[in-house]
Amino acid sequence: MSRITTAVIWSGIYLLAGLVCSIDIDECEDSPCENGATCVDVVNDYLCICPAPVLDAVAWGGKNCSIKLEGCKEHRCQNEAVCIPTYEENIHNYICKCQPGYYGKDCSIQTTFSFTSNGYILYDLHTNNRTKRGTEEITGQLRVRFRTTLPDMVLMYQGNEDNYLILELYDGVLHLEFWRNSTHLVLSDHRLDDGYWHEVEVLLDEYVQLILYHDNCTNGMCSKKQHVGTNYSLELPESFDTLYIGGLVEEVMLNNTLSRQNFTGCMGDLIIDFRIQLPHNFTRLSQMEFGCNKTDWCHPNPCHHGALCIDLWTRNKCECIRPYKGPTCTQEYTPGTFFREDMPSYAMFTVPQNIGHNFNVSTFIRTLKLDGLLMAIVNGSTVYFRLFLQNGRLHVATLTAPPLVFKENLADGRTYFVNVSVKQGLVTITHLKAEIILGEVPNLPNSFWGELYVGGVPVEEATIEQPGGYFKGCLQDVRINNHHLEFFKLETEDVDMENTSYPVVSSNITQDCISDNTCDTGPCKNEGTCTVTWNDFTCKCPSSFTGKTCEEPLWCEKKPCPSETMCEDVPGGYVCLANATFLGGHSVIFSSNVSTDQQLTYVSLNFRTRDKSAVLLKASKDVDYISIAIHDGHLQLKLQTGNSVEHVQFVGTIEISDATWHRLVIKMDDPSEQLSKWIIQLDNVINIIPEGRAGSLNFLRKDASIVLAENYTGCLGQVTIGGIHLLFTDNPFTQPFIRGAGMMQLGCKGSDVCSKKPCLNNGECRDLFNAFSCTCRVGWEGQHCEVDINECKLNNCTHGWCENLVGDYKCICDAGYTGRNCETDVDDCQNHQCQNGGSCIDGVNSYTCKCSASYAGNYCQWPFPPEKCNKSNTCLNGGVCNSGIWGANCTCRPGFSGRRCEVNINDCESNPCLNGGTCQDSVNNFKCICISNYSGVHCEKGIGVSVFPLPLLGIAVPVLCGVLLLLVIVVIFMVVTARKRRQSEGTYSPSQQEVAGARLEMDSVLKVPPEERLI
């Protein structure tokens, strides 16, 4: 071999080796890792990543994760630490994963500490060998866990009064302040004064960064940072070697903070410059305690009357709801009763402070008196501010401006909390936890002093206007701004004297909220019993009287009204209420004579009709009018009163001409207004406020004509105007509305529409008030049940034809189908006759047999291929073989069956032998072997004992019967012979003569031939 050839060969070998060695062999291909481990291929090796240990589950280790780790069997982890087994260099061991608050190999060292007063820890970074680092490294780091319930406190302070880094809670959120570049970072999304553990970290390099580790943060971390420059690792002042944890000593440094308060709560897992700091190693500290012992001061809630309990870590505080006070809100500010038993009363205070033009006044008020002065701030003869009631409404007045009015009635005897605020001339009132703007007043002077009168002013101060006179009722917890105005000296020790004032002068104020003795004058008449309620009374009346003072007789107790009417007691008498029926052209007219003290602010009426157009009520006087009508089946209202240039007009959308009872109420939205919106209420559920304003219906009080039911067919029920009934019945008392001309019928009665039996085919007629409805029997429809329903149009007979019946139908199904609608194909295979394992296939009214390969025929009864006689088929027991299209067939002798007549039919199968006889089968026959006393073919004859008393008689009777039978036979034979003889005598019989003659003639002539023999 030449050198060139050798070189080429080695070059190929090297090239091939290069190609082969470029492929990394996958050592994981053989799945060497066990127990669910993950295999990672490396160069010339593999790594098995064993499943992470699970509590109380088997852990695995070793090269292939095949070794059961047993290091935690006798571990020493404490304080609920998690034991993690390890396996290194063939040695089982473990490590302890500590819970927060613990440290050490076995988690036995506690890292938590707490402050309950002005404590702190002073940490000297220089003493603890802190070294400067490169500019690319973090200069400073602090990480700590804490929990507290207080919103404002210092967590960490580094530096001095001039150069500092502050970490604190303010208003419950984290703040970080760095003196360089006025850096201020706030994490305001999460309040941290909730008593739970929270973890925070501060990093300082080219940036100052604030990090909060919180479950509600993105990826569990909220952070903010700001660039503060470079090389701070070289430029930090020496004062930064001093680090305060939890508080400060010097007031000047505390003034740099927002919270201005040392930390109260627990801390733990303190890490400074990435080194854990253990509490037992702290040397410079004050009022620090090891561990974290916290009392839950608010569970159970010690505060009463709905007060909020605030956990202040070392104690609790109750935020009482007014008018309650005290450590647990069990006490109450003492109310004062004014004008008790109509004695003028008041209290005069010195205005407690320079209240300025922004202030608020608040109090609890309870009164039944509609008018009275609540409060006035006076300087000489000038009244700067005044609160008073007028007609039960609160009025706010300043200087000479017209008063602002709060429209809610406060004079109903209930207790209300009222808070009036004046800010830059804007007046608001807080009522039922809602702030309502009353309006604006002229600005008060920036500062004013003077006297503050509550409940009234003394008689000698005649120059001070007192709208409504003295206030009568109770006032409690009166405050101007946050200053308490107390009517009586407080005896409790928790009085805030700085914010509490007492009257300079007071007169006739009774301590507590006490009622007048309202029963003292004996207000109840007719032997009624009086009971004092607060500043009022109630009378328990005898059964025949009613009213506030039992002054009204109950006329209805005597049942004065006719039976078809309903009695109702009214002031001054009674009324008999009844429905009325109107027919078309008849209406009724009322004239009015109502007291001028009566306010007519609403109309109500009940009606029932089918009319599409009619007038229910109309009235007019001068330019004022009201019209309530039905237009196209809907409600129509027209109203113009009170000299208004606009009018109220409404057309409804709800059908009311449906012959059902409807109740209509039309009323003023605000009866106290001269012109008001009006509300339409239909059937007690629909409230509509149409456009326009109008006054009251007081124009109907005198000399007005009120027309009811014009062109109306239907019924009217109770009709009232201002609560006064317009009666359809006579009444012995003078009525405010006097019925005049008109025709009507008492009661609500429609035409007897069912008397003519309009419903055919036994349909049921229902009276629908001037209309009827037919409820038809099954199979009929139409307004009169006159139409026979063709049920065949509604129902399809799928495989058949339909026969219509009365209220029903019947399907006549095609052959092979069944069901109500001939929808079901009859399964003809249910009783099939397929033999020899043939499968039945259902068809329509038929079936076919699907035979196996060895059989054929309609029922798979013939072998296939067909058999032939004397070759493949032999009939047994004398059977005859016949050839057919399906092959040989045996016709069996009687007594045999089977394809080849091989079966001897068991003639005993039907049990033919009676009376206990034994059957013996034979060919096409049987024999019965009878027991004693029975005989016959079927053992049907009994051989019993003779019934005759003598043996001779038992023999004689059968013999005699036999002789008689023989005689009968002889007589019959003789009669037959005689008849035959008579037939041949005296009659010519050619046949007989021929036979007789021939015999005689031939006997004489013919000869018998001689016998021939073979010789």
Structure characterization notes:
The strands form 24 sheets. Strands 9, 10, 11, 12, 13, 14, 15, 16, 17, 18, 19, 20 and 21 form a 13-stranded antiparallel beta sheet that branches. Strands 26, 28, 33, 34, 35, 37, 38, 39 and 41 form a nine-stranded mixed beta sheet that branches. Strands 48, 50, 55, 56, 57, 59, 60 and 62 form an eight-stranded antiparallel beta sheet that branches. Mean pLDDT is 86; it is low at 1-19, 131-136, 945-950 and 984-1015. The protein has eight domains: 28-97, Ribbon (Laminin), CATH 2.10.25; 111-290, Jelly Rolls (Sandwich); 295-332, Laminin; 334-511, Jelly Rolls (Sandwich); 574-746, Jelly Rolls (Sandwich); 791-825, Laminin, CATH 2.10.25; 831-904, Laminin (Ribbon), CATH 2.10.25; 907-944, Laminin (Ribbon), CATH 2.10.25.10. It contains six helices and 82 strands. It is mostly beta strands and 1015 residues long.
